Every structure is written in structure tokens, then in C-alpha cells.
Amino acid sequence: MRGYFLIFILFSTSLYAEDINDPFEDINRVTFEFNESLDRNFLKPVAQTYSKAPKPIKKGITNFFNNLEEVETTVNQVLQGKPKLALNDLTRFVINSTIGLGGFIDVATKMGLTRHEEDFDQTLALWGVPSGPYIMLPALGPSSLRDTLSRPFSSFLSVTFHMTESDVNIALKGIDALETRERLLEIESLIYGDRYDFVKDSYIQYLNYEVKDGVDVEDEFLEEMDDFLIDQ
């Protein structure tokens, strides 16, 4: 899951704000402040309440949403020319959707099937499409022009997009965002300095890491955090 707050836990000193293509910084900063206010006054308090739920319940919800992402990952593995990984991820989806009771139990990982995360933005990057300028989206958070344009296709690949009514789909996306935000409560203290620049630097570094699938990335902290995201 790649929600607005994902990048809070990923950072590196190898990138700096002045090196990033950010021609819309003025409006991006206004949008960032709006997102910060939305988080401060709504999402974070709700996430703090949700954090008090029993761990088995929270783990099950995390597994459920991770399982829904397997379909998008599988399709993008195919588009990226990775048939073996596509088969692995499709098998994970089938196993967890059945034996794993709709995905609430991650049986596939226990069977040795590793979880991956791929989206259409990563596919476009592999095809040579440049990321374009940095964009801060209202409520959705940091993005790039390429990532923003890839989102309709990613939404089309969403299981909930095809299987539920629109109001249920919106509710599921809200729960997904809440679940992601709750997992980041204890590590948002990593943010330092100018919050806007920090989030921007972190997002671009994370984007580069994801596009390269962690290859040729020397930052051990990033590698550990990627493992954290995959395992949750």
C-alpha cells in the first residue's frame, strides 16, 4: 500500500531538495499544509484510536489489504517482463484468498512465497518514461507527473474497483489509509528540518528505490524499511 504517509519512514542523505524537479513548489507547499492539517485534525487522531485495537485484528486487516494489491502487482510483473514473479504473486493471491480466509491470514508467506509490490508507475519507469515534476496531491500526498498519470490504470486494476459498490470502495480505501497511518505513528519522529523538503526528498528516494527494486541501493536503512513495508 502506498498511501500518503508511506514516505515518512524512508529517507536518505543522498538527495537534497534543490536537486529535485519541483517547478510547482509554491502551490505544492500550500497543498502540503492542507494535507498536514487534514492529518493533524482527522487522520492521525483516528489512527491513534485504531492503534488500541488488538494486534491480531490489525494484522488481519493489514493482510487483507496486502492481498488485494497482489492482482495489481501480478499484472505489472507481466508488463515488466517478470513471468516467474508474476506467477509467484498470482499464487499468493489465490492461496491467501482461499486458505487464508479472504486474505486475512497470510498463508502464502509461511509457504515460502515472497510478497512483492509493483505498480504501473514502476512499469512506466522501466519502459523509460521520465518521472516528470514533483507534485503534491490534495489528501493523497506526494507524487510525480508520471505517478499521477498512472493512477487511473492502477485504480482499474484494483479488486474493489470491479467487485464493490462505489460507497463500499470508498470505505475500503479509507480503512486502507487509516491502517497505513496507524503503522507509521511510532516512526514519524524521523522527520526533521523543513517538513516539506523532508517529505519531498524521502518520496523521491523511495521512488528511485522502488523502481530499481532495491538494486544498487546502498542505504541499509532503506533496505530495512522496505522489508518492514513488505512484511506488514
Question: What attributes characterize this protein structure?
Answer:
62% helix; two-stranded antiparallel ribbon; mainly alpha; single chain
Structural summary, described in words:
The chain is mainly alpha-helical. The chain has one domain (6-224). The chain is built from ten helices and two strands, in the order αααααββααααα. A two-stranded antiparallel sheet has the order 1-2. A hairpin with a 3-residue loop joins strand 1 (134-137) and strand 2. It is globular and about 50 Å long. The termini are close together.
Distance between the amino and carboxyl termini: 10 Å
Number of helices: 10
- Total of domains: 1
Strand content: under 5%
Q: Spans with pLDDT under 50 lasting ≥5 residues?
A: 1-17
Radius of gyration: 17 Å
Shape: globular
SSE order in H/E notation? HHHHHEEHHHHH
- How many β-strand runs? 2
Structural class: mainly alpha
> How much is the average pLDDT?
85
- Oligomer state of the chains in this structure: single chain
Major sheet: arrangement of strands = 1-2
Relative helix content: 55-70%
Major sheet size, sense and barrel closure: 2 strands, antiparallel
